[in-house]
């Protein structure tokens, strides 16, 4: 059967790609952020996962305020990036995965989730920045990607417990897939940040560290928060923790943290990185 070998959490802010384009990785502002990624890249090179399930949120490129699905899953053979107006260079086409993605969709619907199924979708920086961080030479064509998009922009948004349950359902679907593929799951975005309003620039490093701790040891404790709690504790964009919870929900076996980093501020966010090794139950 297919198995989930691990999970990776990472920021997806547009400024990351701009810094990479301009060769700023070793400058004082960025050094501590980028220096944390080589161990994760090394792990990916050693493990050679076949498929990446990437939880992300679309920031208006494909799903604007007039059409905003709560949950959406890509089932396409490939995905293109497009200009979002951030000044980020587009990246090469991302290879899609069709068999497992359709299996996941069917299993989700069978178990009372109703995602929007996307057979033609462009992906924005929420998905492309993490790929570029993990594969800075953009040599990711071998990796088949399943995008899972979560609404983190427009209320009403899915609450943390529902997003975690979505992850659990996706994890069970992967475990029931009749193949020997190795799957890695990304939770992108976050952590605490607020980009506008009276609290613009707000970062809660203590809360961020608590979330990273609980993500390993007691993820269900985080599902007790409401989205309003996340906004209060983590800023108006702190609800992106939902992508991390979706990722963590997919891993139902033993989870061990093997790498962590936290830097703040990075482009007015608390930027967390975690590498979690997963040993599936058998």
From TrEMBL:
One of its GO terms (molecular function) is ferrous iron binding. Keywords: Dioxygenase, Oxidoreductase. The keyword Acyltransferase does not apply. Residues 8-264 form the Extradiol ring-cleavage dioxygenase class III enzyme subunit B domain. Gene3D superfamilies: LigB-like. This is Protocatechuate 4,5-dioxygenase beta chain.
């Amino acid at each position: 059967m297919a198995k989930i070998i691990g999970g990776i959490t990472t920021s997806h802010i547009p400024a990351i790609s701009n810094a990479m384009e301009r060769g700023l990785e070793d400058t004082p502002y960025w050094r501590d952020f980028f220096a944390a990624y080589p161990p994760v890249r090394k792990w990916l090179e050693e493990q050679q996962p076949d498929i990446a399930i990437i939880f992300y949120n679309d920031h208006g490129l494909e799903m604007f305020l007039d059409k905003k699905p709560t949950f959406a899953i890509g089932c396409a053979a490939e995905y293109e990036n497009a200009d979002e107006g951030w000044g980020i260079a587009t990246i090469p086409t991302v290879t899609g995965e069709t068999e497992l993605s359709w299996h996941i969709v069917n299993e989700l619907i069978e178990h009372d989730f109703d995602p929007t199924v996307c057979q033609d979708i462009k992906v924005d920086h929420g998905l492309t920045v993490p790929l570029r961080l993990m594969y800075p030479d953009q040599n990711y064509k071998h990796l088949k990607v399943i995008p899972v998009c979560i609404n983190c922009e427009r209320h009403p948004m899915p609450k943390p417990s529902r997003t975690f349950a979505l992850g659990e359902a996706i994890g069970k679907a992967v475990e029931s897939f009749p193949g020997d593929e190795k799957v890695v799951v990304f939770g992108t975005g976050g952590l605490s940040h607020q980009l506008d309003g009276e609290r613009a620039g707000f970062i809660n490093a203590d809360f961020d560290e608590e979330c990273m701790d609980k993500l390993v040891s007691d993820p269900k404790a985080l599902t007790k928060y409401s989205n309003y709690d996340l906004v209060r504790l983590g800023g108006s964009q702190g609800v992106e923790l939902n992508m991390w919870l979706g990722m963590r929900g997919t891993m139902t076996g033993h989870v061990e943290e093997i790498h962590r980093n936290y830097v703040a501020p990075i482009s007015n966010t608390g930027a967390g990185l975690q590498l979690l090794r997963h040993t599936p139950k058998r």
